[in-house]
Amino acid sequence: MTRNILILVLIVLASCGTTIRTPEEAVQKLGANPYFEIDGKVVIPAELADYNPADIASLTTYYNKDAKKRFGEKAKDGAVIIETKEFATNRFETFFKSISKDYEKVLNETPNEELQYILNDRILTEDYEGYLASIDKNLLKEIKIIDQKELIEKYQIQNKKVGVVIIADAP
Fold this sequence. Notes:
It is a single chain. The chain is an alpha/beta fold. It has seven helices and eight strands. It has helices at residues 2-15, 23-29, 64-71, 85-99, 101-109, 129-133, 148-155, and strands spanning 35-38, 41-43, 56-62, 79-84, 115-119, 122-123, 140-147, 162-168. A hairpin with a 2-residue loop joins strand 5 and strand 6. The longest helix has 15 residues, at 85-99. The protein is elongated, with a radius of gyration of 18 Å. The chain starts with a helix and ends with a strand.
């Protein structure tokens, strides 16, 4: 049952382009009792069924020595680290606010549905939370806030009021 749920989660993430291995390869590489975390909290495999795969922003698997180095002996069979979209959004918003007072102001004054994120000239429309949460101070080059006029002129986006343009190196 647990492997089936994990495969389902990995398939959903593979369709979003966030995993390198096929779901079957990822599961086969894990041992019999991998270590699981969701949003920084340890979970047992049965709890995976409590999460909707569509709510997952990122999933990272660690194997062998890398898993043990990061999480200790409890990860001797590998580790699966999952972040939900809500958790990832909180992480990137907190980080971006610490870097840009303009972003903090816009975030406080503008409803989320009126914000448009643009990463390296790519308009982000769905399943972007994991990408933005993976940006750290070493990768981030610039955060720029643009108004509705510039959103329309430069990006042809008419249904948003504010743009958050992010320039960053790939994680």
